[in-house]
User: What shape does this take?
Amino acid sequence: MSNNNIKHIAEDYNMSEEELIKKINDFGIEIADGNTLAEEDVALLDEMIKEEIREKKGKVVEVEGSITVQHIAEEMGKSSSEVIMKLMKMGTMATINQEISFDIASLVCNEFGYELVKKDNSENEELEIEELMEIEEDDEKDLVHRPPVVTVMGHVDHGKTSLLDAIRDTDVIAGEAGGITQHIGASEVKINGEKIVFLDTPGHEAFTSMRARGAQVTDIAILVVAADDGIMPQTVEAINHAKAAGVPLIVAINKIDKPGANPDKVKQELSEHGLLVEDWGGDVISVELSAKKRLNIETLLEMVLLVAEVEELKANPNKRAIGTVIEAKLDKGRGSVASVLVQAGTLRVGDPIVAGTASGKVRAMINYKGKRVKEAGPSTAVEILGLSDVPMGGDQFVVVPNDKTARLIAEKRQSMQREEMLKASSKISLDALFEQMSEGTVKDLNIIIKADVQGSVQAVKQSLEKLSNDEVQINVIHGGVGAITESDVLLASASNAIIIGFNVRPVSGSEQVAEKEAVDIRTYTIIYKAIEDMKAAMSGMLDPEYVDEDTGKVEIREIYKISGVGTVAGAYVLTGKILRNSKVRIVRDGIIIFEGNLSTLRRFKDDVKEVAQGYECGLSFENYNDIKVGDIVEAYITKEVERTID
Ligand code: GDP
Assistant: This one.
């Protein structure tokens, strides 16, 4: 009986006795003798308290771990297809069982008027995660020899790609088991029975960007210098990058087959940059070779092994795998595909894994020959399938004890990343870009592109991404067809992106959100203008801005076809005013279908200079007749805005 004691029950619900008594009274439940409740009343009370919690929570969807379309649809009492449709409108394709990110799920829930929240993970769990993430220290006796991982660097056109090709060919000649070479970001060759791993992306950009993210994957760098060209600016950069990373260099003096080849001159120039080669009495190994004629390639590989031996590269293969993502992409058929380099431990199919902010279970592993493998030990590059999300090149991956831990860690990292992004970024605008670039506060310029046709999205994406330079990397984080929606703006806000629209407008409401979130939306009708603007902004030379100042919005309500005159619209001024000399944009479903001039503006039968809000008018357009009832005419004037220089 004592279990039904009010005091006891209050403790169960984590309330004070007074609170509970008030509730019991509110619910109209009778308190029996000795401050107790009857057995059936305890059950009733429990039911009512739960109901109350449900009501109070209102439209909240709680999630824990991975989020699927089905799960949130069920929680909101919607059909999965309704949710999928909404997602499609937001530019995300998803199937019922597909995992979607918290951000996307949150946006879609908002669309249905729900709030998405994460279930609280208890402190204990967090502690546990920290522990699980800790990478075990290796005992000297567990360490075994591992193959070297090599990056090829050097000036453009000095033969990096050719050398990598030549190296791969060596392997084929050596009679290794064939197969179609798969691009997984790295390839392996064997020389004298020893394995060497080559990272496939030549140049120091990849090397440096990984390092910038805290990943050190290269053990040895091969510096390619063309014997007919000598040390060039990127050669010097490569030397400096290798030095900064403390990675030993081997110099490949390439193109010795060329008539103008002068290896001695290269050696002399190297000495001027602090690299004294062996035959000059120094300790830098150099190999004179020809990638094209396949000369001395094996010698180079032998030298790599020699340096590797000196470096005593070792790892413990018998622990949970850890390594680095070399590159990753989203594949239509296979989902997230990540090329990873296992640096220690052994990665196996079925392992629960976290890579950056992505998590999952390794569903399949494919090696550089395109073959499926079941496990990959230290210094092995494999492509892995099964991650929920696309990690970034340079992200660390770790195998963890179970799926749940993987999910929790990934989620924790995601929220940390979001918080950091919010903290670090005062929102970017094109006008302030140069300033922020100079201060070094912007390294990445994220862009969202919305356009009326897919072709434009692609064209703009490619042109803009090409503008990336040493100071700033331009990333198109999202591109889609259709008007600029509120979810575009929220995505931009979350990832500190600028939105570029081509022949599209923000839908009503999204402009206000953009203003609130300080998201810069730029709309264009000509692609090259956008590129010019971006270029100018990056060099701090943004032209005096011409801004279109909207003067009013007019709705087309009737259409008259008048012979000899064309199509005339009976219209109503919704906001502001429209002027005879206004420029106009005709917008249908958020897409600009015409931009040009008015040809007539009338009140009744008279030509007028302007018509204000709340009045009807007659409109026709210069060289445009294809109007429909419901079209919105945006009237605007173009104004020059002085750019302020502080
Ligand atoms: P990368 O920009 O450093 O990757 O250079 P590539 O590998 O694309 O080579 C640039 C050009 O140099 C190509 O036309 C190659 O055919 C040529 N090339 C590369 N290696 C040699 C070589 O050993 N001898 C000669 N004659 N040409 C070479």
